[in-house]
UniProtKB/TrEMBL annotation:
The keyword 4Fe-4S does not apply. It comes from Nonomuraea rubra. InterPro entries: AAA+_ATPase, ABC_transporter-like_ATP-bd, ABC_transporter-like_CS, P-loop_NTPase. Keywords: ATP-binding, Nucleotide-binding. GO terms for molecular function: ATP binding; ATP hydrolysis activity. This is ABC-2 type transport system ATP-binding protein. It comes from the Bacteria. The keyword Nucleotide-binding applies.
């Protein structure tokens, strides 16, 4: 079963294409790293996948059907939680607004990481706020979880905690990051964007099978240094 299919997906701003002819698919259960240099089109792609942007060309399907927002959860780059609300308030809001709310999925790792549920979101650390955003996404029981730079500005321990949680989530995950070394232990699929185009896409083991690179980091760096390499 395909969790996500993009067909000639494109976004143009005036005369400039932020993303062009992006065609790829992800199987259900994939953990996919979305990587590429600054300005490559990662946030644009994630905004298209989550319905925050309308495509100029093409479209996407989630689990074989046109995009339904209830099936997709998005943790945006700035994790815009309602910052004056407590974690408990946010969880209550999640329960009230999501028909498929799963309290256990939302709260289990908050307890595991000692997140103070009575604390206001704006008094949490960046790593704690990321975990709360992930808890809300997990509670929504979305089929597709989309994370834009969840590791940005986190210290190494917080990054490990966040990636541990991502590894345990029961959903297909598409996540963008510049921190390649942290993705390697969690992600099994890769989409590499360059200048608004899909440069590489597939299961990580397939992508490595016919190449000298042995790690995701090497593979991505090889392609960024030599954009003419075969896909
Ligand atoms: N609202 C907009 N209007 C015009 N151009 C835009 C807009 N949003 C993005 N772009 C352009 O589209 C291109 C892709 O931007 P995008 O933010 O998707 O890249 P990115 O890979 O997420 O970058 P970064 O890693 O720096 O976050 C860039 O050239 C950017 O300037």
């Amino acid at each position: 079963m395909k969790a996500l299919e993009a067909d000639r997906l494109g976004k143009r701003y005036r005369t400039r294409w932020a993303l062009r002819e992006a065609t790829f698919e992800l199987p259900a259960g994939a953990r996919c790293a979305l990587v590429g240099p600054n300005g490559a089109g990662k946030t644009t792609l994630l905004n298209l996948v989550t319905g925050l942007l309308a495509p100029t060309t093409g479209g996407i399907r989630v689990l074989g059907r046109p995009l339904e927002l209830s099936r997709v959860a998005f943790v945006a780059q700035d994790k815009p939680l309602y910052r004056r609300w407590s974690v408990a308030d946010l969880l209550r809001f999640g329960a009230a607004t999501n028909p498929r709310w799963d309290r256990h999925a939302a709260t289990s790792f908050l307890h595991a990481y000692d997140i103070p549920v009575r604390e206001r979101a704006d008094r949490l650390s960046g790593g704690q706020r990321t975990l709360v955003a992930l808890a809300l996404a997990a509670g929504k029981r979305a089929d597709l979880l989309v994370l834009d730079e969840p590791l940005a500005e986190l210290d190494p321990l917080a990054r490990l905690q966040v990636m541990d949680v991502v590894r345990g989530l029961d959903a297909t995950v598409l996540l963008s990051s510049h921190i390649l070394a942290d993705l390697a232990g969690v992600c099994d699929h890769l989409i590499l964007l360059g200048a608004g185009r899909v440069r590489l896409c597939g299961a990580f083991t397939d992508l490595l099978a016919s190449r000298p690179a042995t790690t995701m980091e090497d593979l991505v760096l090889d392609h960024l240094r030599n954009p003419g390499l075969p896909r």
